[in-house]
Recover the amino acids of this structure.
């Protein structure tokens, strides 16, 4: 007699469904925060976007502020995973730098709505939420610092400190304001231009 298929335990199935619904809310909130802004987006807007009743998101999040924090942390974590994968196995600092720049631009310009929210809505965070987001943001930026030091040592960068890092992220993040797909430059081409601007010729 053939064995009947084992059905997932009700608790595990419920937990998986809850996790999926939470992820849907984060993605929907991210899109709406980018399109409408945090202040103009209501919980009802987010609930409607995923086919929920207006009060249902509060089962997953304490408040809209809590949702904003989750959107930013999810975006940063996805970006961190992507950049770690981009530099895995690379030894040369210039190759690492190129990989990091390209990864960062793909994250903010392609279909990753959570990370751009960090750029647009940073000031909307409460002090408590900001501290939690900064902890993840520091982990993301920490991957860059040893690469900048190696480039400085190799004579390819004039400065490897905080100012260099801030200028670099400022320039890269501003691309989201003017870049348009199909506008004459690919993300790869924008990345190469940025890399050429920051790297200096060897002595």
């Amino acid at each position: 007699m053939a064995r009947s298929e084992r059905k997932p335990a009700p608790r595990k199935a419920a937990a998986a469904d809850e996790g999926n619904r939470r992820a849907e809310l984060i993605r929907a909130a991210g899109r709406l925060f980018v399109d409408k802004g945090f202040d103009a987006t209501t919980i009802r807007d987010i609930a409607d976007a995923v086919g929920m009743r207006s009060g249902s998101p509060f089962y997953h999040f304490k408040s809209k502020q809590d949702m904003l924090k989750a959107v930013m942390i999810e975006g940063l974590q996805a970006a961190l995973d992507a950049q770690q994968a981009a530099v895995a196995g690379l030894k040369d600092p210039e190759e690492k730098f190129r990989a990091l720049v390209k990864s960062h631009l793909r994250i903010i310009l392609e279909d990753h709505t959570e990370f751009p929210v960090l750029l647009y809505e940073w000031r909307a965070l409460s002090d408590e939420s900001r501290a939690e987001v900064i902890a993840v943001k520091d982990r993301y930026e920490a991957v860059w610092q040893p690469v900048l030091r190696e480039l400085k040592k190799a004579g390819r960068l004039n400065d490897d400190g905080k100012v260099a890092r801030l200028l670099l992220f400022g320039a890269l993040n501003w691309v989201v304001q003017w870049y348009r797909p199909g506008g004459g430059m690919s993300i790869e081409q924008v990345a190469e231009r940025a890399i050429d601007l920051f790297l200096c010729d060897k002595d």
